[in-house]
Structures
1.
Amino acid sequence: MLRSERLLLYTPLIGLDVLAPAAAASDAEAQRWLGSRADELVQHEDTREILLSMRADDDLSWFEARDRLTMMRKLENHADGIVRLTAVHLADGKYAGATNVRLESGEIGGWLAPGYRRQGLGVELFRAAVQLGHRHLGLKVVRAGAEPTNSASRGALTTVGFTPATGPARFTLGDGREVDTCWYQHVQDPTSHCGAGAAHGS
C-alpha cells in the first residue's frame, strides 16, 4: 500500500478494485492514448458512470453473478507479469484511476478517471509507480513510453524525474494502432527488494 498527498494506492483486493479502474480508462479521451483491447474496457457509458460514482468500500451485492464472475476473472490476471495498483482519492473515497509496472521490462503505465484529470494527480500516480518499481520490485530502471503529443503524460513523467531514453520510435497499442513513441527512464538503486509476491500483499 502506498499513499501520496491525495491518493491511496493498493493492490486490488475485491472485484470493484479492478472494474472501477477499468471504467476510469474506458472513455474515448483515455483510449485516445491507451488504446486498450476491447475486453479490457467497460463498454457501456452508463455502467462506467455507476462504477465511478461508487466508493471503494461500497457493497457489490447488486451486481449480477455474471458481472461478479467477470470481475473475478480480471482479479486472477496477476500471473501476466504486471503488478497493478488501484488508486482511490483520499478526499472522497472514490476510484481515481490505476497504475502498473511490467516486471520484465520495468515499463510503467497509468491513467486517471475523467473527474480527476488535469489536477496534477498524474504526478502522484507516476511517483507511486516509481516507488513500486524501485522499492518494492527491486528494479534499478523504470521506463515509460508516451506519444510526443501527449503533453500531460510527458509533463508528469518529467516532473517525477524521468529523463529521455532510447526506445522504439513506433509502438503497437493493444487495439492494434501503431503510434509514434518517445521514451523516458527513471534510474535509482533499489532501496529494498520485497519481490513481486510481497508487492502484491503490501
2.
Amino acid sequence: MESNCTNCNENVYFACRKKAASYNEKLNSRESAAELLGISPSTLANHELGITKSVPVDTVVMMADLYRAPELKNMYCKKECPIGKGLPVSTNIDSLQGITVRLLNGLDDEEIHAMKKRLISIAADGKIDAEERKSLDAILESLDNLAKTISELRMLAEKFTERGNGYGAY
C-alpha cells in the first residue's frame, strides 16, 4: 500500500507536513511552512494540533499543493464539507497496482453489460418498484466503488505526475 499521511495516528495536517519535509527541508519547521502557506505560525499550529475545528478550505488546498498531498483535499471534502460527505470519494491512496486491479475488476465487460441490462429493465416502465430498488441500489454501490477507485487514481496521478512535480514512484 502507498504510504500517505492520512493513515497516521497524528493530526493529518502535521503528518502531511512532516512527510513532505523529507523532500523540502523548509517544511521541517512550522515557521517556514507557515510562511510558505501565507499564514501565521500560530494558525498553522492550531491546525496541526487540532485546535481549529474547521480548517479553511483555501488553506487545505494550499497545504495539499505545497505538501504534494492531494488526499488532503479529498479528506476535507469527505469529512468536512456537508455536500461532499455523501459523495463516493477516496481519502487514501493505494499502490498503482492495487488501484489498477480494482479499476479493471470494476470495469469487467460482463458485469458492466449485466448492469446495463438491469438498468434498462428498471427504466423501461419509468417507475422503480421495491424489487427494482434493490437492484438499483446494487448498481449504485458498484458504481460508487468504481468512483472511489477513480478518485484514488486521480490523487495518485496528481501526486506523482507533472501536476504533482513528478516526485515519487508509483
3.
Amino acid sequence: MHLEDLKRLVDLGEIDTVVVAITDMQGRLQGKRLDADFFLDETIRAGTEGCSYLLGVDVDMNTVPGYQITSWEKGYGDFVLTPDLSTLVPTHWIDKTVFCHADLSWIDGSSVVEGPRNILKAQLARAQEHGLLLQVGTELEFLLFQESFEDARSQSYHGLTPANQYNVDYSILGTSRVEPILGRIRRQMKAAGMVVESVKGECNYGQHEIAFRYSEALAKADEHALYKLGAKEIAAQEGMSLSFMAKFNEREGNSCHIHLSATDDEGRSLFAGDDGKRIHGASALFEHAIAGLSATMRDFALLYAPNINSYKRYVEGSFAPTAIAWGMDNRTCALRVVGHGQSLRVENRVPGGDVNSYLAIGAMVAGVLYGIDNELELDPPMQGNAYVADVERMPTSLGEAMELFARSTIARSAFSDAVVEHYTNMAQVELDAFGRAVTDWELQRSFERL
C-alpha cells in the first residue's frame, strides 16, 4: 500500500488504525495501534517511542538481568520506532487496519544494533557491497488445534484435539477438512501483498504448511513475522489455535526451511554458472557460499535454533537434520541444493517454526559471506543417509549452542561483540528459567517411584 492510498482510505473512513511494530528477540511483533490520522499527522514525521525493555525481557515479558542496552540501572528508557512506509499493508482480518514494520533507533538517532531487523539489514548491506542481492523463501509449518488459545492454556496445553487426527502429508482430503481456516489464511495473506503458492498437509496430526513465493530477503523476513501474527489472529477468530513451536510432542516437529539464492542488480542468478567443481551448472561463488554455510552452522546455531525446545526437533529419521552436510536434493542433510539454472538455490533445513526470521536469514547471509570472502572449498556432496554419516553434528542443546556462539570469532566479526553478548544473554536467561522449572516429565518419573 502506498502512502497516498492510505491517506485516501483514511479520508473515506475505510481505515482508522495503523499498527506500528518491531520484531523482538523472540520473533514476536511488538508495538502500538495508532489512530490513523495521528499516524499521518505525527508518527510519519517523528516516529513513536517504546520502552527499551522490549529487547530485554524473556518470553513472559519479565525484566531480566544481563543486558547492556537496558536495565533498571539505566532506567528502562525509550527507543524510537520509525515506520518503514515501504512495508504498509492492509490486514483485512482486523477491521479497518493497516500494518507497518518499524526501524529501531535510539533517541539520538543511532541504530539499535541488537534489534533483529537492524541485524539483518547490516548483513544485507555487507552482501550488497559484494554485489549480491539475496532472495529468500521461508517455509513455515504449524500445528492446528480445535481448541481456542484460551482453552488450550486452561488445559495446560494437554489433551488438545488436532484439527486432523492422522498423518495428512500431501492428503487432499486432509486439507479439505480444514480448508475453511486454511483458505481464509491464504486469501487474507494474499490481500496483505504476499504471493501465495500452495498449502499442503504435513506428517504430524493437524500439521500444515502454507507456502509463499520467495522475495527480497528483508521483505521476506517482514512477511514471515506478519504471517505468523496473522495466522494466529485468524485462528483465534475462528475459535481455534495453532502453534509454530519447534517440537510440540514426540512426533514430527515444525520446521522453517529457508531457501536462499543470489542475483546481480540485473536479476541474473549469481549461483548458476560453469566454474563450480562439485555442482553441475553452478558457479564457484555458489560453492563457496554453501561451504561458508556449512562452516558456520555450529557457530550460528543459536540464531537458527534459539530456544530450549528447538533442539528437541533434531531427531534422526524425522526429516529434521542432525548432520552438518550438504547434498543434492537430499532431505537428510542440513543443507539441500535444489533447482537449476536461474532457480538454483540452497535450502537450510536447520531452523524450526520457532525461529526469528531476521536472525536466521542474517546468519545465513553472514555464513555465505564468510565462505565467499575466504573462498572456502566445498566438500563432496553427501550420498545417502546423512543421519548415519561420520560428519559434524548440530549442537544438541541450547547451552551448547550458546557456548559456541559466545566463543565464535566468526560471529563477533560478522555481527559485533554487542550482538553476540546480547543474544548469549538471551540464551542464558532461558537456560536459567528452565533450570528452575519442575516439568511434567519429572513429576511422572519422581512423584511416586522415587
